[in-house]
Amino acid sequence: MADKVILHVGVPKTGTSFVQDRLFNNPESLAAQGISYPADRHDAQFLAALDLMRLTWGGLEKQAAGAWERLASAVREAPGAAIVSHEIFGFASRAHVARALEAFGDVETHVVLSARDLVRQIPAEWQENVKHRRTVTYAEFLEQVRDPARNTTIGSWFWGVQEVPDILDRWGGTLPPERVHVVTVPHPGAARDLLWRRLTDVFGIDPGSLPVSTDRDNPSLGVPETSLVLRLNTRINNVVGNERYRQFVRELLVHKTLSRGQTSPRLSVPPEDYAWAAALCGSWVAEIAKRGYDVVGDLEDLLPAACLPWVDPDRPDEADVAAAGLKGLAAMVGEAARLRDVEIELHAVIKELERALAEARDTPSYRLKEKLVDKADSNLVARVGLGAYRALRGRNSRET
Amino acid sequence: MTSPAEERDLEAVAWSWIEHLRRRGTTTWREWAATGHPAVEPRWAVLPTAPQLEVVRRLAGSVCERSGAFDRLADLVLTTPVGGRGRVDPRLPGPGDSAGDRDVLEPRDLLRVCVAALARWCEANPTPPGRCGKRARRHRPWQASFVVDGCSPHAEAVRAALLAAGHAEGGRDPVVLVVGGPLEAMLAAHWRQRVATGAGVRWQQLWTGLVARGRLPGPVDLARLADRWREEHARVEIVLNADPADAVDAVGRILELDLDRCTPAAQDPVDTDLLRRLNQVLASKDPGARQRLLNGELVPLPSRSYREPLGVPAAHLGWALDQAEALVARLGDGPWVVHGDPRVVVPSTDAGLPRSVSADRTLDLALQVLLALEGGD
After folding, report:
1. pLDDT tens, A73-120?
2. What residues have CB less than 8 Å from B178, skipping those under 6 apart?
3. Which end of chain A is more exposed for a tag (fewer CB within 10 A), N or C?
4. Which residues from chain A sit within 8 angstroms of residue B109, using beta carbons?
5. Strand, helix or coil at B114?
């Protein structure tokens, strides 16, 4: 039975994929430290989050049925401390949170939220939208995010997973503040492993003890690359199914091709929105400081650094987009060639199997059986006899 | 902007309002909060959200002939976590909030609440094991040999009429009857079939997908169906009528059978829309229970007179007309007999025809279904 559960509930785009990858791929090392990360597949806790909140997610929700109960059960039975981590848990309503906390029973519960300044989060979330098939322009995205009604799909999702004080209130409202941990993502230029050390400090893990990874980073794209994927979405949405989109666009094109070796302009916030976002960050910092949470890092990290040079992704440099397109096309051709080789190989296997089947059927006894089956179509006696034979034989095949 | 202290006071008043609603009260929140009420102990750990409370208020104000336990229904709605996408925990407006965004609850906010409650009810009332629908009737050798194909209210009416007259599909050398009607009616039936097996696709999304793929779905492409049947059967006949009852008459003449012209009521697209929303919440769990709930098999539903046909979405009407014209040409050129006018498949361009399912209508249905649960266990 677990004596502690650590719930890492967000926010997206704060290194959460890296964390989950390391936790999943180093179970023995975790166990040696008295910690478990209950997951029988890499996306098990993501499916549990979908199940808890009854979210649809491009068809994956069908695999999520029952995932929450399985996770909760695994957490209850885990020895020592159990870690639950997925960034969409931040979207949970108070009622969902109550259900989640109740599921873990009477165990010491900690909530961890890794947070980054809003000026970096806004373009990152838009890019995430694009990587999930959306075709909304950056200008449209900003308009919906800034709309105080927050009643659009984009607005309601963005603030549901990004409004740090509200998420902390929903998840930490019934916990003592010392069990609510805010881990700040350092500004660019800090030591590469600083965020990792902060998180492992909260989790109670030796930062050097989880070496195995599957390179499941979620690297970001630049302006022209994001624009390219958005344009691609407008062409292929509703033509390519979600599974193939994930495989070819998100994995191959985005993660393995376009995000590597980038030098293109970075996404940022337009100057006219910077002041609004910065003010909101300031109000959040003040609110978090008031509540007495355990801050791991520095709340100043949640205030934005100077605004990056603004390059409008809705009006990108077309030469840059073309260059990204060529890079992507090359990767796709390479993959198509590889898949074609696999197809040729499979055809050869099929041909061999067909040959073996034809050989097996080219026997007098089989030919006789075929004649009898044909006869049964027009001869009642033959039909009755065949029915009796099949009933005695007890097989499903109707061929003989 | 409401301060934390005002939020706490607000909550105390909200709990008293909840008790009022549970007793079938219909006072609005603004009216209730404006007058003093004695403090009430919170009934639950979590205060229900504004949409949940508004749904209960509307249920309380609806006419209901049953005398059931309304508080049980209210509790179902108020204690069911609301899943899916949308604003997280929209709260009641406070004295510091001017009338505006916090007051505005759109039909989709209220629908999420209704769907969550219905989904929870479906989970608590699963399909009993062994119940997999009616067993198909067996064909008898002395009966007419036929097969009915097609995805439309017309094909359904023909099948129902034949079954009611004691005739089952099958037999040696059957005549294949491919039955169809207007394209939008066939697509609506196709949509309903997909949703009945667990899909959560919207009407507009269905059409967007078809346009992107550039062809009609197999069960609706009557010429393609007829072609496939022709590979194995010599006699394939196509039956086309605007009215399902006329399709029944036509089949009766073809098979020389006396069939009852009475046709089953067409499925309401609003039912399909509500079912698809339930599918999204319940994922793969027991689509049968949801279908049976909306069919009125689990709980008697009030009779509804609303049965409007659903037109092709305006954005895709041009494509649908092109597809229909191509289908008309193929039906006319094929090696089969056509009963009726092939132009029946051309979709309506009537400007007054609804071309999407209104969220308000789906919300009305959801509220009616919830109310019908009031008398149930």
Report:
1. 999 999 999 999 999 999 999 999 999 999 998 899 999 999 999 999
2. B149, B150, B222, B225, B226, B229, B236, B237, B238, B239, B336
3. N
4. 151
5. helix
